[in-house]
């Protein structure tokens, strides 16, 4: 019974780490990434559609992203959606594609992104602590049913805390690595 609780806790903690890494892809490092546009949606025949499902999105060099729509009529819609997304650059529409020219990152930009990475890490830690609470609640149910001894219950709580501490350490390391990447010139 306890092993099931531990496995469930680890599974959910792994998902929290994956979500953190996915959030990090939206942060800009020295080189632009098309992931910065992951949250941009366009109105495509009345439905909100991710940008990468209506156009080809390519990072043509370290500071330029080119978006080529599959339908030319989408150029204005894509331009408007990017402006509304407020990603820090103005789209340039050349009649064929939309180009985003990102200026070199300043030290201030890098520090702001590092601070944002830290906030994302804190959000992941909160998620992991909530998962710990759920695991402890499951152990409390077992404790009420009196199906395990007090020693086994105590070991269960200790193991849940050990798993939580392990994942919190992983989050700290991931955030530290990301900060180093963001602050590197």
What does this protein structure show overall?
The structure is a single chain. α1 (2-24) packs antiparallel against α3 and α3 packs antiparallel against α4. This protein is 58% helix and 15% strand. The protein has a 4-stranded antiparallel sheet with strand order 3-4-6-5, covered by helices on one side. A two-stranded antiparallel sheet has the order 1-2. It has 4 helices and 6 strands; from the N terminus they run αββββαββαα. The longest helix is centred in the C-terminal third of the chain and has 39 residues, at 107-145. A hairpin with a 2-residue loop joins β1 (41-44) and β2 (47-50). It has helices at 2-24, 75-85, 107-145, 150-183, and strands spanning 41-44, 47-50, 55-61, 64-69, 91-93, 98-101. With 185 residues, it is an alpha+beta fold. The mean pLDDT is 91.
Overall pLDDT: 91
Number of helices: 4
Class from secondary-structure proportions:
alpha+beta
What overall form do the CA principal axes indicate?
Answer: elongated
Which percent band covers the strand fraction? 15-25%
In total, the number of strands is 6
Task: Please give the order of strands in the largest beta sheet.
Answer: 3-4-6-5
- State the helicity in percent bands: 55-70%
Measure the end-to-end span.
50 Å
Biggest pleated sheet: 4 strands, antiparallel
Note poorly predicted spans. Answer: none
Order of helices and strands: HEEEEHEEHH
Q: What is the gyration radius calculated from CA atoms?
A: 22 Å
């Amino acid at each position: 019974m306890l092993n099931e609780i531990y496995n469930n806790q680890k599974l959910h903690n792994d998902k929290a780490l994956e979500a953190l890494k996915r959030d990090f892809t939206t942060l800009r490092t020295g080189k632009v990434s098309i992931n910065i546009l992951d949250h941009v949606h366009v109105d495509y025949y009345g439905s909100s559609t991710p940008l990468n499902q209506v156009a080809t999105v390519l990072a043509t060099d370290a500071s330029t992203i080119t978006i080529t729509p599959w339908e030319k009529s989408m150029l204005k819609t894509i331009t408007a959606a990017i402006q509304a997304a407020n990603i820090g650059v103005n789209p340039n529409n050349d009649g064929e594609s939309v180009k985003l020219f990102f200026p070199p990152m300043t030290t201030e930009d890098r520090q702001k992104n590092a601070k944002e990475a830290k906030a994302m890490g804190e959000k992941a830690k909160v998620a992991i602590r909530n998962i710990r609470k759920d695991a402890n609640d499951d152990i409390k149910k077992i404790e009420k049913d009196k199906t395990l001894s007090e020693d086994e219950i105590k070991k269960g709580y200790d193991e849940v805390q050990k798993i939580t501490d392990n994942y919190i350490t992983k989050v700290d390391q991931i955030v530290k690595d990301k900060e180093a990447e963001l602050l590197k010139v």
